């Protein structure tokens, strides 16, 4: 099974960086093997559909606009994303993940398995780092992603000596 683990978000906009941040954290701690493509999609545009084409399964991490408290983690499966209108905006990025999946579905190329793991942001503003609320959600998000990868048949191998995550955008200015 070809699996895409994708982070979406602008690393220069506070909690919107959650997708790339989680990817860097997981890559520092695990080797995912050849069946898992780790993709920092940044703030994709119309090319989002192209990023997702060719995968059997997709696991996405992003900041989401939803009712609730900052730092709350939510999850949506493929059917929820495709089959019924969602009362929330999934992402500040255009087109939305839902639109990209609908396009792929119409072409018969949509991943069979889809999981969107989202966290409600506390702040999305230029120059901000991850908020404490979102930072506290990191273990929950990472555990959910690892469970999903195992369910899909991937076997992330813990690194003997974990690396320091390369979250360069949070490094102190020199």
Structural class, from secondary structure content?
alpha/beta
How does the major sheet shape up? 5 strands, mixed
Low-confidence stretches are 86-94
CATH class: Alpha Beta
Number of beta-strand segments:
7
- Helical residue percent band: 25-40%
Spatially, the strands of the biggest sheet line up as 3-1-4-6-5
Radius of gyration: 15 Å
Mean pLDDT: 89
Overall number of structural domains: 1
N-C termini distance:
43 Å
CATH topology: Rossmann fold
Per DSSP, what share of the residues sits in E-state strands of 2 or more residues? Answer: 15-25%
How would you describe the overall organization of this protein?
The protein has helices spanning 18-29, 48-52, 78-83, 97-106, 132-151, and strands spanning 3-8, 30-31, 36-42, 57-63, 73-77, 113-119, 157-158. The protein is α/β, with parallel strands linked by helices and 174 residues long. The protein has one domain: Rossmann fold, CATH 3.40.50. The strands form 2 sheets. A 5-stranded mixed beta sheet has the order 3-1-4-6-5. The protein has a two-stranded antiparallel sheet with strand order 2-7. The chain is globular, with a radius of gyration of 15 Å. The termini are far apart. Residues 86-94 have low confidence and may be disordered.
């Amino acid at each position: 099974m070809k699996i895409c683990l994708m982070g979406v978000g602008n690393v220069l906009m506070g909690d919107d960086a959650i997708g790339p941040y989680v990817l860097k954290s997981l890559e520092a701690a695990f080797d995912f093997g050849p069946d898992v493509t780790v993709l920092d999609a940044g703030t994709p545009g119309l090319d989002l559909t192209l990023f997702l084409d060719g995968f059997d399964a997709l696991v996405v991490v992003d900041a989401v606009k939803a009712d609730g408290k900052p730092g709350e983690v939510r999850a949506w499966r493929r059917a929820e994303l495709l089959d019924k209108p969602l009362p929330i905006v999934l992402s500040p990025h255009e087109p939305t993940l839902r639109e990209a999946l609908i396009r792929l579905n119409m072409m018969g190329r949509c991943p069979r398995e889809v999981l969107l793991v989202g966290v409600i942001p506390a702040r999305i503003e230029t120059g901000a780092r991850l908020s404490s609320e979102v930072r506290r959600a990191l273990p929950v998000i990472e555990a959910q992603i690892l469970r999903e990868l195992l369910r899909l048949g991937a076997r992330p191998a813990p690194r003997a000596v974990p690396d320091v995550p390369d979250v360069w955008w949070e490094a102190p200015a020199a």
